[in-house]
Amino acid sequence: METGEAYEARLKVYEGQRAAVARPGKDPVNTPMIRHWCEAMGDTNPAYSGPDAIAPPTMLQAWTMSGLSGQTRGTHAYDELLGLLDEAGYTSVVATDCEQEYLRPLRPGDEIIYDSVIESVSEKKTTKLGTGYFVTTRMDIRVGPDLAGTHRFRILKYAPLRPTDRPGGSPTRRDRAQKPSRPRPVVNRDNAGFWEGVQRRRLLIQRCTTCGTLRHPWLPGCHACGGLDWDTVEASGEGTVYSYVVMHHPPFPAFDPPYAVGLVELAEGVRMIGNVLGVPYDKVRIGLPVRLEFREYDEELVLPVWCAQEVPEMQETREVGT
Ligand SMILES: [Zn+2]
Predict the structure, then answer these.
(1) By its UniProt entry, which PANTHER family does this protein fall under (predicted)?
(2) Long-range contact pairs involving 294-298 (C-beta distance under 8 Å, separation at least 24)
(3) 48 assigned to some structural domain
(4) What pLDDT digit, counting tens, does each position of 3-21 carry?
(5) For residue 39, how far is its CA from the centre of ligand 1 (angstroms)?
(6) How large is the average pLDDT for residues 24-45?
(7) Of 8, 141, 234, 278, whose Cβ has the fewest other Cβ atoms within 10 Å?
């Protein structure tokens, strides 16, 4: 992997270079897109409908998007920068965050033009995903001479961790011949506490400290009262299958179909998804009592799973049905 000051100096050359120049939006700002956005977001603000409607400010990037049909690529500078990172082994990419500023409302009929500049390339950073460089681009969106808003977008181009990067790990022929490992959970700022708990073999449920409502999956705010403060309670580990599916197809390499995936209702009332084990897949039923266990799938992946507490018998099923 290419490193060192000379390499970083080559990356820094791209700071300030253009990633897009005077590119027009694919459509003028328009009422149907605004309506669809508001419906998808559940945003009923009256400012976004009627004869004097403005577009929701957070739609800013939507007017610059190229859609599924794509469009002309970025400038040479942006492609070159990403190519330079690819060549050095930083082949993975993840969008990390964006910041927007709103300076002038957009209204139906406005035709936007945007410029984009490579604002910065970070120093080399090591993250949980791997080592790489943050690339920040800033888009300026204009209507005629007026700046309507700015959209600053940051990605991490990184070299994914390999087995050799793990403590004590070294790839062997046997490793490569083994079944691919399971997909990793996507850990972010909002759910990191949940996965840290799982690592310690504790299943943590988020609790709003304003109104006491429990929630799962983990979110920044309370859906009951909007409160932002929270703590956690540890799940007892008791639950029942609220609903389930049996996966037959498609066969993902890391899994052995058929297998049952349950939506488990915990004794505490929240529901979460996990594999239902300890019973043949075709014996999983709604209402099946299950208990939490933690299963280690490989040296770094621990997942909560749900083990059946009894094998349902046909007799019981008939009794329930009569
Ligand atoms: Zn609350």
Answers:
(1) BLR3430 PROTEIN
(2) 294/198, 294/201, 297/181, 297/182, 298/181, 298/182
(3) yes
(4) 688 999 999 999 999 988 8
(5) 25
(6) 94
(7) 234
